[in-house]
Amino acid sequence: MTKDYLQQSFFFFRSNFSALLSIQLPFLIILMIIQMSTISGVDESSNMQAQLILLTGMDMLFVPIYLAATIFYMQAVIDGGSITTTQSWFMAFRCWGRLFLTFVLSALVTALGLMLLIAPGIYIAVRLALANAICVIEGKGPIDSMKESWEGTDGLFWTMFKGLALIFGGLFILEVILSPMVDPSSMISMLISVTLDFLNVLGTIYAYRVYRAWRDKEPVEDEPSVL
After folding, report:
1. Whether 103 contacts 73, CB under 8 Å
2. CA separation for the pair 184, 133 (Å, rounded)
3. Hey, how many other C-beta atoms are within 10 angstroms of the C-beta on 27?
4. Residue 70 half-sphere exposure, CB side, CA atoms within 13 Å?
5. Spans of all domains in the chain
6. How confident is the model over 128-156, as a mean pLDDT?
7. Counting C-beta atoms within 10 Å of the first and last residue's C-beta, which end of the chain has fewer, N or C?
8. Angle at CA 137, nearest 5°, toward 114 and 13?
């Protein structure tokens, strides 16, 4: 099933590329400008830790907006309807608070698992991978969303893990290859960063596909086998 879901996710990405780009790109550009301004303002006497906290904080503020907007757009398309970019943004703003808390709590729990050992952190991240969709689409709070995701992925762990590992693993390898080729403070480096950040939407699409399989009670062969 992982192979089928990946193919469907890539097809959705290609078919809706322009819409997905219009939803996410404005926020990614804003974050890029903030990052460039922060880097250009850093000198030997600057507090690097404070700059990193600022960048992380801005990420945490903006990501829930375009993440929710993307999920709302996917839901509309899959259900046979359509919404504009502006509509998806307004819908996202309305659920920003609960998704922000879901996003932060999931990140904290995952980080705690990673601090203990790498494997527990990865396991927790996969088990909570449905929480964002549950929070946005079903309007549930952070704790309920995380609890339902944990229960929902009980029989979908390997399907979720293999798909996300291939997507994010591939993007990580691409970043490792491209990063040493350019100056970190150059415009090209920033454009590469924005491109890779946008390609993270593939993980969102895949997680939503698995979410729909779970909610629609599709039969899924969830086994730790090679694709």
Report:
1. no
2. 34
3. 20
4. 33
5. 2-215
6. 93
7. C
8. 75
